[in-house]
Specification:
This protein is an alpha/beta fold. The chain is 41% helix and 17% strand. The N and C termini lie far apart (50 Å). Its cofactor is Mg(2+).
Length: 323
């Protein structure tokens, strides 16, 4: 098995579950270091139950993670498959997001063993599962920061713009924004903003300041929603309304930290389920959870289209922001 792409809180819990479940079925587990790089280079270690003691609460990943440019080439996929064949491994488990699953699918073209994916990404942008490993923790991390920013925003009567991760997905921004009581949420599902076309953002701020007399105003924004990011948008808002707007970019802090209980449980459940499904012959599938039930979903379909954000919450947020 390997962990690939961006790390997510709960990956260690998933590794632990896989190792313990495999040991119960007398299956040998090999962990490759630094994602697909370790697979291509043959950098691995055998994992036994004692290796995964007391790691369920740790962030990051015991196996380390990394991007792997070589996996974007056929030669890289072939090299990974050669390692699997030479080591006589029967199956490969990949913990990661849609990019990692594309790498797994590329390897499948040159490898006859079983391949299963487990959704490990804070972005929650993988189809076939209600939540991905790390998503719940990322929300809580962002929420804690926004709550603290609210305190200083109230004290100085300022506008704050908080930029969260999510690549091209608004799951974290919408969830953390709603849970924190943010006045506005900007995310890809609501459209990318353009300089000079900020009336939809500025008008609610002016109404809140003048009509409702709010002492603070928080805008939660997903990354990549404005040219130049939140710093540029904060400067343009300040210029447009004459009230200081400060930007705060949380960045990679959202990917670290001890996983919350929900992520530990999900990771444990999916890790055990994946091993059991391998024993049942599953191949080119992803282990996910839908309506609290573990299930399999075609690996190919997990990233075919953009996962839909909750339309009700999106509609509600638009309604109250414009009120």
């Amino acid at each position: 098995m390997l962990t690939s792409g961006g790390d997510a809180p709960g990956m260690n819990a998933c590794i632990r579950s896989i190792v313990l479940t495999a040991a119960a079925h007398q299956i040998e587990v090999v962990g490759f270091s630094h994602g697909f790089n370790g697979l291509i280079e043959g950098d691995y270690k055998k994992l036994l139950p004692y290796h995964v003691q007391h790691i369920i609460h740790l962030g990051g990943t015991l196996l380390k993670s990394a991007r792997c440019p070589a996996m974007h080439t056929e030669e890289g996929a072939k090299a990974a498959a050669i390692t699997l064949r030479q080591m006589q491994l029967d199956a490969l488990l990949v913990i990661g997001g849609d990019g990692s699953f594309k790498g797994a699918l590329a390897i499948a073209q040159h490898y006859k063993g079983q391949i299963l994916g487990l959704p490990g990404t804070i972005d929650n942008d993988v189809d076939g599962t209600d939540a991905t490993i790390g998503y719940a923790t990322a929300i809580d991390t962002a929420l804690d920061a926004i709550d603290k920013i609210r305190d200083t925003a109230d004290a100085f009567e300022r506008i704050f713009l908080v930029e969260l991760m999510g690549r091209h997905s608004g799951f974290i921004a919408l969830s953390a924004g709603i849970a924190s009581g943010a006045e506005q949420i900007i995310c890809p599902e609501l459209g990318v903003l353009k300089p000079g076309e900020l009336d939809a953002v500025i008008r609610p701020i002016q109404n809140a300041q003048v009509v409702k007399g709010k002492s603070s105003y928080i805008i939660v924004m997903a990354e990549h929603c404005y040219p130049g990011g939140s710093t540029a948008l904060a400067a343009d808002i300040t210029k447009a309304i004459g009230i200081e707007c400060r930007a705060c970019v949380l960045g990679h802090i959202q990917r670290g930290g001890s996983p919350v209980g929900a992520d530990r449980i999900l990771a444990t459940k999916l890790g055990a389920y994946a091993v059991e499904q391998l024993l049942g012959g599953a191949h080119l599938m992803m282990a996910g959870e839908v309506n609290h039930q573990a299930c399999l979903y075609p690996l190919q379909a997990s990233g075919e289209h953009k996962k839909r954000i909750d339309p009700y919450l999106l509609r509600w947020q638009q309604q109250v922001a414009n009120d």
